[in-house]
Amino acid sequence: MQSLGGSESVLIPEVHYSPLGDHLPLSPPHEHSSSDEPANYKVASFSPQWKQAMQEEIDALHMQCTWSLVPNPGDKNIVGSKWIYKIKRNSDGSIARHKAWLVAQGFSQEQGLDFSETFSPVVRHTTVRLILSLAAMNKWQLRQLDVKNAFLHGNLEEEVFMK
After folding, report:
1. CA-based angle 73:75:79, to the nearest 5?
2. Between 22 and 128, residue with greater pLDDT
3. Of 151 and 78, the one with more pLDDT
4. Where are the domains of the chain?
5. Which pLDDT score is estimated for 98?
6. For a disulfide at 53, which of 27, 68, 80, 98, Cβ 3.0-4.6 Å?
7. Spatial distance between the Cα atoms of 59 and 53, rounded to a whole number of angstroms
8. HSE (CB half, 13 Å, CA atoms) of 113?
């Protein structure tokens, strides 16, 4: 915290910036700590909440028929995997849920050999602003939705081997 000085000092939180650029503020250090989020599988495996979150992720991967178990192909690049853990919070800061993702370590893939291109369709901010402006002008009711495991709905043309 930083004081503005004077007889009636006001404390203001310090803003910490991202190493990616001075224009990307990070959360102040006094907000929710990520120390409750395990750094690796070994730590997470001791917690019932994290074990349940990992099981939910595995179940979602199975439901989407994301993978099939195959013997090691030997001559193909095998991508590593890692668990990522995040506590999702409600607006009041209470814990909404524990979320775990099993991710491929794609940095070990080589373009042209393991994949041809990468593309992720996203909406432009100007499009969102346009829709919100039209909704406000026309008094439209807005709704939102979350597609769980949205990334699982895409189709890969290449074979990816993961361990």
Report:
1. 70
2. 128
3. 78
4. 35-162
5. 94
6. 98
7. 10
8. 11
For 21, which DSSP code?
-
Place of tokens 């007889």: 7
Round to whole Å and give the CA distance between 17 and 27.
Answer: 8
134 CB-near residues (< 8 Å, 6+ apart): 140
Q: What is the DSSP string of 56-86?
A: HHHHHHHHTT--------SSS-EE-EEEEEE
Q: From its phi and psi, is residue 58 left (phi > 0), alpha (psi between -120 and 50) or beta?
A: alpha
Instruction: Please tell me the distance from the alpha carbon of residue 67 to that of residue 163, in angstroms, as a whole number.
Output: 11
Dist CA 2 CA 12 (whole Å): 5
- If you average pLDDT over each of 46-50, 89-93, 116-120, which comes out highest? 46-50
List, for residues 137-153, the tens digit of each pLDDT value. 999 999 887 777 666 55
